[in-house]
Design goal:
There is one protein chain. This protein is mainly alpha-helical. It folds into 2 domains: 42 residues, no CATH class; 208 residues, MetI-like (MetI-like fold). Helix 4 packs parallel to helix 7, helix 10 runs antiparallel to helix 13 and helix 12 packs antiparallel against helix 13.
Length: 263
């Protein structure tokens, strides 16, 4: 496990060391050469990067995209998961099968039709369009995960709540949500990581004023090519947030997904 951990962390450590080197030092050798002379490392690259208004705006756009897209998927999937698990309505099982079937639809299929639709309604190129696309394509997996987890809650628990006079909203808010916390937390982490690291959707649906950090860094590669002193700190800045989220909530990954994977 130690060997696997070291291999897994090597690219991250290398990226961090490279982000602390100047462009002249980058030309002299690989990042590992800096370990022999750590005195030459500094955070000047990060200062220059954060002084760039385009990068800071892209970082803020990433937050404005990731947080609403995560919250929207969690809220809608929790409501739909409870309905599919415990509410009786015509066609419930067939509709759920349709939702599960949407899991196999590649995201690339919907790019052009949705782009045309967003252009007609006037939200193409905006943060709203990017958020709506992420919510729409994140819902099938989210509903599948939460429905299977909610279905494991004992029926007697819900019946006891109804006998005590609890409405469906009361049961959902005071019973389902607290008991489904592991699956909900796991879903929120997955969705946040997917949206934060996305480049394909934002590359198509976001314009220059609403592009996230991933697209901003990609444009730096296209324009300048070898400016490692800009790309390395930008990439590490984009990496550190999902990495911190993963290490802080990694317990929920296994607990939530394993609990919701079977009925």
């Amino acid at each position: 496990m130690i060997v696997v951990a070291l291999v897994w962390l090597t690219p991250t450590v290398g990226l961090f060391v490279a982000s602390l080197r100047s462009s002249a030092d980058q030309d002299e050798g690989g990042w590992w050469t800096a370990l022999a002379h750590p005195g030459g490392l500094s955070f000047d690259n990060y200062s220059h990067l954060l002084d760039d208004s385009g990068i800071t705006r892209a970082l803020w756009n990433t937050v404005l995209i990731s947080v609403p897209a995560t919250a929207g998927v969690v809220i809608l999937a929790a409501l739909a998961g409870y309905a599919f698990a415990w509410l009786e309505f015509p066609g419930r099982d067939w509709i759920f099968l349709l939702v599960v079937g949407m899991l196999v639809v590649p995201v690339q299929i919907g790019l052009l039709p949705i782009a045309k639709l967003f252009g007609v309604i006037g939200i193409f190129g905006s943060i709203t369009g990017v958020v709506l696309f992420h919510i729409a394509y994140g819902l099938p997996f989210a509903v599948f995960l939460l429905r299977n987890y909610f279905a494991q809650i004992p029926r007697e628990t819900l019946e006891a709540a109804r006998m005590d006079g609890g409405s469906e909203w009361t049961i959902f808010l005071r019973l389902i949500l607290p008991m489904g916390r592991p699956a909900i937390a796991s879903l929120a982490i997955f969705q946040f990581l997917w949206v934060w690291n996305d480049m394909l959707v934002s590359l198509i649906f976001a314009d220059s004023g609403s592009q996230p950090l991933t697209v901003a860094l990609q444009s730096q590669v296209r324009q300048f090519g070898a400016n490692i002193d800009v790309l390395a700190p930008g990439a590490f800045l984009s990496l550190i947030v999902p990495l911190a989220v993963f290490f802080a909530f990694q317990r929920h990954f296994v607990e939530g997904v394993m609990a919701g994977s079977v009925k």
